Structures are given as structure tokens and as C-alpha cells.
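#struct-help
A.M.: can someone run this one for me? Single chain, 89 residues.
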Amino acid sequence: MKLINIGFGNMIAAERIIAVVSPDSAPVKRLVQEARDTKRIVDATQGRRTRAVIITDSDHVVLSAIQPETVAGRAGGRDSGGSTEEKES
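D.P.: on it. C-alpha cells below:
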């Protein structure tokens, strides 16, 4: 399992990520509010401004204070050979 740093020492499993989007559009704001209302939100911003919204395969919504491009770049290598922990186990 590969973990991706989403800011301030918070990590998320790379294979669980479906989408990484900017929080600026109205549909994403509605998605975040709906997740907040149904208690499916994880706020990993440490009180900072939300810059990326990460949607997972379990329908959880994760808020991050780093740019979506940065999160995507960190997740970009997830299909290249796997991690050493998986090979050793």
C-alpha cells in the first residue's frame, strides 16, 4: 500500500483515491457540504484554506491544504512497480 502525504503529516492510501479536484466550483462545494452533513468528510487542512478536495472509493471526501496538482503529482507514480512493503510481506 502506497501512502501519499496530503499535507501536515497526513497521509491517504493512493489506491483509494478516485479524484482530486479544486474546491472552487459550485458542484464541488455542494459535494463537500453533503459529505459534511452525512459525516463522510475528513478535514486534513489543520485550519488552513482548503485547496484540494480528494474523493475516495468509499465515498469519503478528504480536504487538503495543498494544491490538487501537488497531490496528483505525488500520486502519479502509484502504478510503477508498487511499494517495497508489498513485495516483502
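A.M.: thanks! Residues 2 and 80 are 11 Å apart (CA to CA).
D.P.: also worth noting: The helical segments are 26-37, 68-75, 84-88.
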